[in-house]
Known about the structure:
- This protein has helices at residues 5-24, 34-52, 58-72, 75-83, 86-89, 92-111, 170-183, 189-196; strands spanning 121-130, 133-141, 148-155, 160-165, 168-169.
- It is α+β, with helices and mostly antiparallel strands.
Amino acid sequence: MTYSTSFSRRTFVTVGIAAFAGAALSKPALALTTAQAERLIQNVVADINKVINSGRSENAMIREFAGIFERYADVERIARFTLGADARAASSGQIRAYNKAFAGYISRKYGRRFREFIGGEITVKSAKSVKSFVEVRAEALLSGERPFDVTFRVNDDGLFADMLIEGISLARTEKIEIGALLDRRNGNLDQLTRDLSSL
């Protein structure tokens, strides 16, 4: 499937927001009200913009985003999901190394695009329980673009699990990308783990 430049830009920006929103929502998800979720996400966006507008170099900003992501996001769950069936054949040591490399890869990939969120805003519209997670529906606006729907999925343990942009799962999108990277390395997870550090 081919995505437009506009959607690709949205994807880069909002998946990063989602990771940090997951950090802010790391309280019992079912106890959150819509108003609480909205305030938390607004705080996350404010913190991200503070880093963006700090005047620091891109590398310094990426390091800050990486620290936030690694400290609060459910890196292990997201990373394991992106590996799919290949995770079952990997040793615990390989999984630990991949998780660390994946966290850095994601932080760099999306951290570089946070500058594009300057002037943007996100507003929570509703929240509801769905099976084992809570869906928080929001509306996001990037400067110069029409508003678009973003749905945050928070597990019952209060950690970010996935996000849908206009119905498209970003976790599944990353799974496809990681799968393609692994295929190009003939299924060699150790090589993929090493190469992620330079992507």
